[in-house]
Write a structure and sequence with these properties.
Blueprint: E1 5-12, H1 20-31, E2 41-45, E3 48-53, E4 57-64, H2 67-79, H3 91-94, E5 99-105, H4 114-125, E6 130-134
Antiparallel strand pairs: 1-5, 1-6, 2-3, 3-4, 4-5
Amino acid sequence: MANTFYSYLAFITPASDANLIVLKNNLEIFYARPAIKDKPEIVFENNQITIIFDGEYRLSIAFSEEEYVNEEALEIAQQQQLDYNENVFDKTQLETCCKRFEVWGDDDFDMDYFNDSLFVIEAIEKFNGIIIFAIQ
């Protein structure tokens, strides 16, 4: 993950219904609402969704199923007690994860896109079998 702002790892358990294309569609539906005045561009390519706000700010969600995903899941299960929301998580379930969404944003020192980052996390949480960690 290239940047440190709004960085999350959303591990996907084997029984999860998580899907990057469904996530993209859900994001498009959310941002198409009339209440959203400045609609971002949503680009999907190479197993990654990039949401581009105001033609310059980027919030990205990538899908990964590389070998290191399970290795990191095993490490986190040993080291962490709480998920990103400070809730206890099922370590046994995390240890089975071989896929994840990786979320990150460009630098946002004024936190202009903080709410958007939270919406992305909420959209990911709607899938079952997701365990999310904030990356510092």
